[in-house]
Amino acid sequence: MTESMISVADLNAHYGLSHTLQGLNLRVDRECVAIMGRNGVGKTTLARALVGLNPPKVEGRISIFGTDVSGWAPHRIARHGVGYVPQGRRLFPSLTVEEHLTLNRRPGPTGEQWTIQAVYDMFPSLAQRRKSYGNQISGGERSMLAIGRALVTNPGCLILDEPTEGLAPSVVETVSNGLRDLSREGVAVLLIEQNVKAAALAADRAYFMAEGQIVYETSDKDDMTDDEVLGRYLGVSA
Ligand SMILES: Nc1ncnc2c1ncn2[C@@H]1O[C@H](COP(=O)(O)OP(=O)(O)OP(=O)(O)O)[C@@H](O)[C@H]1O
To answer: Is Iron tagged as a keyword (predicted)?
Structure first.
């Protein structure tokens, strides 16, 4: 059997005495996989561990494209072909929309198809704001720019931490459809998402996370939005 694009085995993370990730296992192939879970269960900690932004203590194995990247620095993981859309977006107030894209643009494992124009085609409102600075755009535009900035690196794997936060429903749909299409083109997409409808639209499979572990896995879209399932594993409803 060939190794998955992302493979995580027995991942543990600690913040001081707090054991945040507790022996977590997951895999992502050429598909879109959602991670769903309540606030504070460790979703961001997981995303950060995958891209090398570690809390004080992390143990376990993280393999990306068949290479063990455990302990690698974030820039090395990025160069390996991993795109990351962080929560909080981390944009630069002194750079324009276009400069954010230009500075990050490079060919990646999937070639060069994600040009700046391709990002503008996906998010037309960014094209209109191309000369605006990172601190002069709306929350939704910030999310779009953070996604665009990851896409122009032409990643082979894309990790997104609540990318639809702050987006209008029509743009949520654009993003979800875009992520689904990206996975169809062979990119491994790991989508942390609290918007269950957005997750179900984009994802082929979902992991439900609670207290630092995966507690449920499904590839049934109805399950992903089912009130009984969501209530049982996440304590929320769709
Ligand atoms: N820098 C830190 N120092 C200490 N504890 C932290 C730190 N960052 C996160 N934690 C704790 O680790 C746990 C997991 O946090 P994390 O941000 O990974 O959760 P999350 O599932 O992404 O939550 P949310 O959906 O609210 O973003 C929480 O209890 C949080 O308080």
So the answer is: no
